[in-house]
Amino acid sequence: MSTENVKSSGLYYSVIDGTFRRRVDEGTPGATRRDYEKSDGTPAVKWEMVVDSLTGKIEDMGIFDGDFGRTLNITLDANADGVNPKLQFSVENNYGEDLLKKFPNVDFSKEVTFRPFAFTDQSSGREIRGVEVRQGDVKHKNYFWDAEKKEALHGLPTPEGDLNGFTKDDWKIHFMTVRKFLIGYFNEHVQPKVTKSAPAEVTEAEEEEVLPTPF
């Protein structure tokens, strides 16, 4: 049975600032106000339930194109209220890409705990964002990267040429190549382990993209 660390009756969760957020009406008990700007710069307000983590067995998942870009949609088994939490991650930012890198390690016959994170590395000043994926005592690592040897694994594309001469455009091209590879690997090797295809509905856009580091 799926569980979450904050009681909720909603369905759809996206990731904002390292936490799961579910949009609710103003006045909902426990809701948090978030001020933001629309794409045209107009100020606006959302009321949200903030959830640190979600746990459940994955019943459905898939990658879909929508009005807000390409998203990884995950449906968990029903919670205590008989509602299926639905998680939505943009695959065009760090959160979705981090999941795609860890999913090949997941045993989909067992429950999975998802915990987004976002912090600033004190030594480099770099924004670190991703999703912790845990099953029991096992915290899954990047399937495509050997942290000790600093080497790519399982066909992950690596930058070609003199990295000292790389421009922002060069890195963007590389990141897009990596993203295309990860999506292709997911569609061919990971998603078929879950027999359904998650609904393509997307409730709202996620926060702006933060380009990942090479690995």
Average per-residue pLDDT, rounded, comes to 87
Widest sheet: strand ordering = 4-5-3-2-9-8-7
Number of helices: 2
**What number of domains?**
1
Radius of gyration: 18 Å
- The count of β-strands is 14
What are the low-pLDDT stretches, counting only 5+ consecutive residues below 50?
5-10, 205-215
Notes on the structure:
It is a single chain. The chain has two helices and 14 strands, in the order βββββββββαβββββα. It is of the alpha+beta class and 215 residues long. The protein has one domain (3-193). The protein has a seven-stranded mixed beta sheet, with helices on one face. β4 and β5 (43-51) form a beta hairpin.
Features:
215 residues, alpha+beta, 7-stranded mixed beta sheet, 5-stranded antiparallel beta sheet, 14 strands, globular, disordered C terminus
Layout: helices, strands, pairs:
Elements: E1 3-4, E2 12-16, E3 19-24, E4 32-37, E5 43-51, E6 54-56, E7 58-66, E8 69-76, E9 86-90, H1 94-102, E10 112-120, E11 127-135, E12 138-139, E13 145-146, E14 151-152, H2 168-190
Parallel strand pairs: 2-9
Antiparallel strand pairs: 1-6, 2-3, 3-5, 4-5, 6-10, 7-8, 8-9, 10-11, 11-12, 13-14
